Amino acid sequence: MAEINITASQWRLVEVGRVVLFTHGTYTGRLAVIVEIIDHKRALVDGPSKNAAVPRHSAALNNLIVTPIVIPKLPRAAGRGAVAKAWEKAEVESKWGESAWAKRREQREKRQNLTDFDRFKVLRLKKQVWRFYGLSLPHDISQDART
To answer: How far is the C-alpha of 79 from the C-alpha of 100, rounded, in Å?
Structure first.
């Protein structure tokens, strides 16, 4: 007989205890945890974060991104206090801060808030690095300016 190897899927499931990130609405960029699944399009979320709290409310799943972070053994429809204790015990904020996803979001936000002069300084620093390592510039701006 052929040997069959069954493995679990790598999908991030919508489940109670799953940490989510808001993508739209008033809580954009904030973390929350799914407390209860209402139906296939909505979930009850609660975000006891110290930095940016999210009050308990119903949220559409299309306004959320499911993260790989899970609070284990969180009971369904847990109260606000129980969710806050589980949040602290699971160290959600430190796990999120260490993730590459959070670091990329922070870097992207920092770059979006640069002024024109700051972008110019970054360009000059990049050119210095390229010249230090003897690399050719990916797109030589100085050549385009002369022609």
So the answer is: 31
Distances (CA, A) of 73 to 15, 41, 50, 91: 11, 23, 22, 14
CB 33 within 8 A of CB 21: no
Which SS3 state, helix, strand or coil, does residue 101 take? Answer: helix
Question: What is the tens place of the pLDDT at every residue in 32-77?
Answer: 999 999 999 999 999 998 888 999 999 999 999 999 999 999 999 8
| Residue 14 burial (CB count, 10 A) | 14
- The C-alpha atoms of residue 15 and residue 36 are separated, in whole angstroms, by 8
Distances (CA, A) of 51 to 32, 48, 73, 94: 12, 9, 24, 12
- How far is Cα 113 from Cα 116, in angstroms, rounded to an integer? 10
User: Is the sign of the CA dihedral 8, 43, 39, 90 positive or negative?
Assistant: positive
Distance in angstroms (rounded) separating the CA atoms of residues 46 and 34: 7
pLDDT digit string, tens, across residues 12-28: 788 999 999 999 999 99
- 29: phi then psi, degrees, rounded to nearest 5: 85, 0
